[in-house]
Amino acid sequence: MQIDIFTLFPDWFGWFQSQRHVRNAIAAGSELRYIDYRATTPLSGAQVDDTPFGGGAGMVLRVDVVDIAMRTHYGIDPVELASQRRVIALTPGGRMLDDALVDELAAEPALTLLCGRYEGFDERIVEHFASDQISIGRYVLAGGELAAMVICDAVLRKLPGALGDAESAVEESFSTALGGAPEYPHYTRPADYRGWPVPEILLSGHHARIHEWRLAQSQARARAQAAVGGSDSEGAGGDGAPA
Ligand code: ADE
Questions:
Q1: Which partner from 17, 102, 156, 169 sits 20 to 30 angstroms from 204, CA to CA?
Q2: Residue 190 pLDDT > 90, yes or no?
Q3: Is residue 158 within 8 Å of residue 103, measured between CB atoms?
Q4: For the whole model, what pTM was predicted?
């Protein structure tokens, strides 16, 4: 998979790219590219943003700056690009990221992520250059960079070769294998610590019964999460509707 990230802070991604599963994904053929909006801005003083028409607080990322950055990188009109690859604008009001959306993105050959800053994007960027808007939660970050890292992290670890154990991304929280429920609890040695024993079933060696127990635990966690309003079914914003 090829992921292009348009940002004002390409340096931020140095740490991200040094993480093991990201390095593994790159070694297995994925590519991450970082494109700095400032590198091609036609405005003086490396300007990329401007005050909002109609007044109000903050600055808005300019449409001409993003147009030229994308056009320079891809060599085509960005309006055409959205029909060739998913172009995702990171916005707090976008479709909520969840495991199903991560699977959907992981199946794509290429993604483009557009990070906003300040008050966000000039709406024409979203309207004409993006195929999708994605949010990582109902709160406002100072920019899209952390959201881009969250998406890349969640997507790359789904790709073959990213995780050490190929099974570990299959039966995990919110996966189809668990019916969308949170993952069951894990334990490791020591079997008893300060009088806190590991559930006996896990030491039994009875794989079918262990599997049953884990599914039941996962279901219990789903009910507990729903009870505190933490699941999609509780209307916590997981319906994919923009805010
Ligand atoms: N940019 C600012 N806040 C964001 C959020 N919650 N999700 C995605 N992009 C954002």
A1: 169
A2: yes
A3: yes
A4: 0.90
